[in-house]
Design a protein that fits this description.
With 269 residues, the chain is of the alpha+beta class. The protein has one domain: Glutamine Phosphoribosylpyrophosphate, subunit 1, domain 1, CATH 3.60.20. The chain is 21% helix and 29% strand. Residues 260-269 have a biased composition (Pro residues).
């Protein structure tokens, strides 16, 4: 359910990352190659990007399919950024909250997306929802499963957790409350990317010291794309990528982390 992508690197027109590649996120809205659940992502889309010198990202989101929005095509042609997060949506429940339910969700410097679905929604997450401050529940942008997962992540971020730890702990809590959920989460603050592979595909492409792309699936056939093993936390910057098995993260935050393989090498498992 959904496809998403995050980028850190030199400034590029949005379209060079999201529209121009042969299997771009734009094309994945109707013809994904590796999507395991659903076939068309036409229930909304969005992109958030960072302008030089401004840590708070801008966003453009719409309810319908990205291919039907001529304004997006024009925007993507001229807007440049060195950091972005974009997503195309296949809704868990059709019609839920329109544009407000389209990723990326945002707060402060953060952008967030969820590729997946919560099993037993909404009943399954009621116990976790009760752990959130009432103000955070009442200020949720939408009533969909992804919005509540974002509220759980954001509560941890505001409590001082680093991006990767906030995602990891949220995934483990939600998976325990709603077994069978798919929880591929993607988060950036414009300087780092954190992501989880839990039930669906996740890939990354890196040129150490220059750029990093993390995506639901490759947007081209570059042989340097690497697939992230299932149940793994990815933490990335412009210089490196770190993979951590989620099953090895304990309550203290200790983990069996290891660097991602260099381009052309097989990932460790």
């Amino acid at each position: 359910m959904c496809r998403h992508l995050a980028y850190l690197g030199p400034g590029e027109p949005l379209g060079r990352l999201l529209v121009d590649p042969p299997h771009s996120l734009y094309r994945q809205s109707w013809a994904p190659r590796r999507q395991r659940y659903g076939t068309v992502n036409a229930d909304g889309f969005g992109v958030g990007w960072y302008a030089e010198g401004d840590p708070v990202p801008g966003r453009y989101r719409r309810t319908g399919p990205v291919w039907g929005d001529q304004s997006f095509a024009d925007l993507a042609r001229v807007v440049r950024s060195g950091a972005l997060l974009a997503a195309v949506r296949d809704a868990t429940l059709a019609g839920a909250d329109g544009e407000a339910a389209a990723a990326p969700f945002a707060a402060g410097t953060w952008l967030f997306s969820h590729n997946g679905a919560i099993a037993g929604w909404p009943r399954s997450l009621a116990p976790l929802a009760r752990t959130l401050p009432a103000e955070e529940l009442l200020s949720m942008e939408a009533r969909c499963d992804s919005a509540l997962v974002w509220a759980l992540v954001l509560n941890r971020l505001r409590g001082g957790d680093e991006e990767g730890q906030a995602l990891a702990d949220t995934v483990l809590d939600v998976a325990a409350a709603a077994p069978g959920s798919r929880l591929n989460l993607l988060l950036t603050n414009g300087e780092v990317i954190a992501a989880t592979a839990w039930g669906d595909t996740l890939w990354y492409l890196t040129e150490p010291g220059r750029r990093t792309v993390v995506a639901s699936e490759p947007y081209d056939d570059d042989p340097h794309w690497q697939e992230v093993p299932d149940r793994t936390l990815l933490a990335a910057s412009r210089t490196d990528v770190l993979l951590t098995p989620l099953k090895n993260i304990d309550d203290s935050g200790d983990s069996d982390a290891h660097p991602a393989p260099a381009p052309g090498k097989e990932p460790r498992t």
